[in-house]
Write a structure and sequence with these properties.
Length: 611
């Protein structure tokens, strides 16, 4: 059974062998349950799930095992199963002259080992014992006992676990992630890959995938010049591939997870990575040879304990490929810890190879504008938001629309008039009234979809209104060079709720975020509610301590403004002075709205408290 195991990440780079040669050990664990599954598939092949090790067809001679268990009992691995055996002579009419008969249990202690350069984990039988149904050791003659053992022990020793697939994954990925300059002797590195140091631990069988890195002296590199347009494009492609890889990996783990808490942790990792990508993409000159490397390693370190917890790879080809990806990424983590002489780089080609290890049929994700219903469902956002209707052509008389058309349009239709208006005179009052009604309506529908406890009643409406005020003064569009264009920030956030399309790719359609105020407001409302429920309130419940109203709303806005990492910084009081000013400004807006001054946003347009 090729590649069937659970890899436990431990990040243990090895010590130097000599000054120019270093050894890297990548630990893994073959989980006991997975070994048991492999044994069942190899030996217990009868239709009733038994292992008929021997039978002569007369019914008088047979040895059958059933209900196997494989348990780690350091320093050995214990195989335990039900069993029954009979030795006799057929005397006609279906009758037997029974010489020996046994029913009970079989216990075998084994020791794992490997014979390099072989890529199979083997098992040596150390001792075998049989027990009666009362679980007491069964008395049996040495002759008959040798007969039983000759059928049992060789069968168990024939069972092996093949781990060539993760080794092959390493051979393919390592040449793609080391630099082009000759710091590392790649040929020697690849030839050194082997399996080593097997031992039984509590979880199962632990071993190491080992390779040696021979480094040369590091040349002095010139300072990095400002990136050209072509270089910047290639750099952005690395980030796109990284996002595709992390999204694919998080999706695969979420599919195998059965716990909402784990799903939330996976979404945190995805959002943290995407916020970091978005920040990097607004930097015109990264100033580093490989800007994605540190984020790749940090993201992988966050994912490692979740991989262990979910116990991926229990069955199926996709899970085996995922484990090969884990092996490759773990090796990169270990190699990186060797320091500068190794010169590890995470390249576009390396990213593509990692994605294809995850799925041999992996295709690059070019559907930037599509919503992924599975991604929304996995992370408890529900069905995709409704697609908005097309926006009619702009008219010079659009400022008359609220008074002329309001009576003939549905409530949602009236709100969509905001797509044809600007927050300016002479229609400012009508605009703000429509925007206010729309946000209040969306706050109510979001609360209905994601109910809050009674102690938080009346919180979400002012929270949403204040967020839209802080972000855009309730504007979906602004005037730029005489034209109405979507409100777009330097960080790439768009629309009335300043949703960042690349961060929320797959959850919302970027086209509708840009062109439809209701779609944008609903998306932002969902995101804000997610951060309120899954972060601010959930953390309070874990601490068994309710935050003050000010702390709760500021923490929620911190997450909305900068993602999960920003929330953690706020709660740990690690925010900058400028961030503290922003959060106090937001709290002031929230308090005004909570006090009933829900149209205080008009301050944006009359010169007082202008934002």
């Amino acid at each position: 059974m090729r590649g069937l195991f659970i890899l436990q990440l431990m990040w243990l780079p090895a010590t130097s062998v000599v000054a120019a040669e270093r050894q890297v050990d990548v630990p893994f664990v073959l989980n006991s349950l997975l070994l048991e599954q492999g044994l069942r598939q190899r030996l217990f092949t009868a239709s009733d799930g038994t292992a008929p090790l021997w039978q002569d067809g007369t019914g008088c001679n047979y040895l059958i095992l059933s209900k196997p268990q494989l348990r780690a009992k350091p320093p050995t691995l214990n195989f335990f199963s039900r069993g029954e055996a009979r030795i006799g002579k057929a005397i006609g009419n279906g009758k037997c002259l029974i010489l020996f008969q046994w029913q009970g249990y079989l216990s075998v202690n084994e020791q794992p080992y490997v014979m390099p350069p072989d890529t199979r984990v083997r098992f040596k039988v150390l001792d075998t014992r049989i027990y009666g149904l009362d679980r007491r050791e069964h008395p049996v003659s040495s002759t008959l006992w040798q007969w039983v053992r000759q059928y049992i022990e060789p069968k168990l020793e024939q069972f092996t676990i093949e781990i060539s697939q993760p080794l092959d994954a390493l051979r393919k990925i390592l040449p793609l992630v080391f630099p082009q300059y000759d710091f590392v002797d790649l040929e020697s590195l690849l030839n050194s890959l082997q399996l080593a140091n097997l031992e039984v631990v509590k979880q199962g069988v632990r071993g190491h995938l080992r390779f040696k890195v021979t480094t040369q002296s590091v040349p002095t590199l010139p300072a990095e010049p400002v990136l050209s347009k072509a270089e910047l494009g290639r750099w952005r492609e690395v980030w796109r591939q990284f996002d595709h890889l992390v999204t694919s990996l998080v999706r695969e783990l979420a599919l195998q997870s059965q716990e909402e808490e784990v799903d939330n942790a996976l979404l945190n990792i995805l959002l943290d990575a995407r916020y970091a990508i978005e920040k990097a993409l607004t930097t015109q000159n990264p100033g580093r040879r490989d800007p994605v490397r540190s984020l790749f390693l940090a993201t992988w370190q966050q994912l490692a304990p979740l991989v262990r917890h979910i116990r991926v790879g229990q069955q199926g080809k996709q899970s085996i490929q995922l484990l090969s990806l884990v092996t490759a990424a773990d090796a990169l983590q270990a190699a990186d810890r060797l320091g500068t002489p190794v010169g590890l780089e995470i390249t576009v080609d390396g990213m593509r190879r990692l994605a294809r290890i995850l799925s041999a049929s992996s295709r690059e994700d070019s559907r930037q504008d599509t919503v992924d219903p599975q991604l929304r469902e996995l992370f408890h956002f529900g069905p995709p938001l409704d697609k908005p209707p097309p926006i009619p052509d702009q008219s010079r008389l659009d400022f008359l629309l609220p008074s002329v058309q309001a009576a003939s349009l549905s409530k949602e239709g009236r709100y969509r008039l905001l797509n044809r208006m600007l927050a300016e005179r002479p229609s400012l009052d009508s605009y703000l009234a429509l925007a206010h009604s729309m946000l209040v309506e969306i706050a109510a529908e979001t609360e209905k979809k994601y109910p809050l406890g009674a102690q938080y009643k009346g919180l979400f409406r002012p929270l949403l209104l204040a967020t839209a005020w802080q972000e855009t003064c309730w504007r979906q569009y602004i005037k730029k060079r005489g034209k109405r264009v979507p409100f777009l920030s330097r960080a790439g956030a768009v629309g009335i709720m300043q949703v960042i399309p690349r961060v929320w790719r797959g959850f919302y359609d970027p086209r509708y975020l840009r062109r439809d105020v209701i779609y944008n407001a609903r998306a932002g409302s969902e995101i804000l509610m997610h951060y309120l429920r899954k972060y601010a309130i959930t953390e309070d419940l874990k601490r068994q301590k309710k935050s003050s109203l000010a702390n709760l709303v500021q923490a929620t806005y911190a997450a909305y403004n900068g993602g999960p990492r920003e929330f953690r910084r706020y709660r740990k009081s690690r925010i900058t002075r400028n961030q503290a000013i922003v959060y106090r400004s937001f709290l002031g807006k929230f308090r005004q709205i909570k006090a009933g001054r829900e149209l205080a946003v008009r301050q944006c347009y009359v010169g007082t408290g202008k934002t």
